[in-house]
Write a structure and sequence with these properties.
- The chain is mainly beta and 207 residues long.
- It has a single domain (2-204), classed as Immunoglobulins (Immunoglobulin-like, Sandwich).
- Helices cover 4% and strands 36% of the residues.
- It is built from 2 helices and 14 strands, in the order βββββββαβαββββββ.
- Strands 1, 2, 4, 6 and 10 form a 5-stranded antiparallel β-sheet that branches.
- A hairpin with a 6-residue loop joins β11 (173-175) and β12 (182-184).
- The longest helix is centred in the middle third of the chain and has 4 residues, at 106-109.
- Residues 1-17 have low confidence and may be disordered.
Amino acid sequence: MLMKNAVAASAVVLMSACLPPGTGVEAPYSAALQLPEDITLSWDQEYNETDDGIGALILLDLLVYDSDSGSPLDNIRVEVMSLWGGVYLIPKTAVKTVPGPEQPDPAECDADNNGEIDVDAPDSCSWFWDTSGDQYIQLSSEYAGGRAPNLMYGATDEHGLLRVHAYVDSMPASADSESGVLSFDQTGVWASIGHQSGKVLILTEGD
C-alpha cells in the first residue's frame, strides 16, 4: 500500500493517453505478448476514496517476444488501457525511489496526545512508505499534480519489456441489497500488440 501526500490523483479523464500512439513499431505477426500474473491487493473501504492520496502502486512488466525463436523483440508498440476509472497508468520515467525523511519526534506529530497527527505537525509526520518494499516513492509533478491517464502507448526495450506502473486509487465496489455489506469487484489492465491482446486482473483479498 502506498500512502504519500504528494501522490494524489484526480478523477480520470476518459482515454487520456500518457504517450503518443506513434511510439514504437507495429508488431510482426510472429510476435507474442506475455503478461504478468494477476494482482491481489489487501484493500479496505477507507482506501477507496478517489483523490485521497492513498493507493497501491503496481509494477507491470509486459514482454513481447518472437514466438518462433523465443527471442525478445525491441521497439514494439504496445497499447495499454486501464479497465477502471480509479486505476491510472504511469510510465516508468515518472516514478522514482527517493530517500525518506528523518524520523520525526512523535511529540512533534501528536502534541495533544489524541492519537492523530496535528494540523501544524511537520510534513514528515504525514509521510508513509511503500509497505511492501520499505521505500519512499515519488511521482513526477505532472502526475502527482492531478494527471490521471487511463490509456498509454509504449515501446519495448532491448529485453522485449515494457514496464508500466498502475496506480490504484480506488476499486469498483458494490453493496449487498439486504445486508448493506460492501464488497469490491475485480478490474484490470488490458494490453495489446495488435493481433494479440490480454489483461492482468486486479483483485482484492477474498475474491
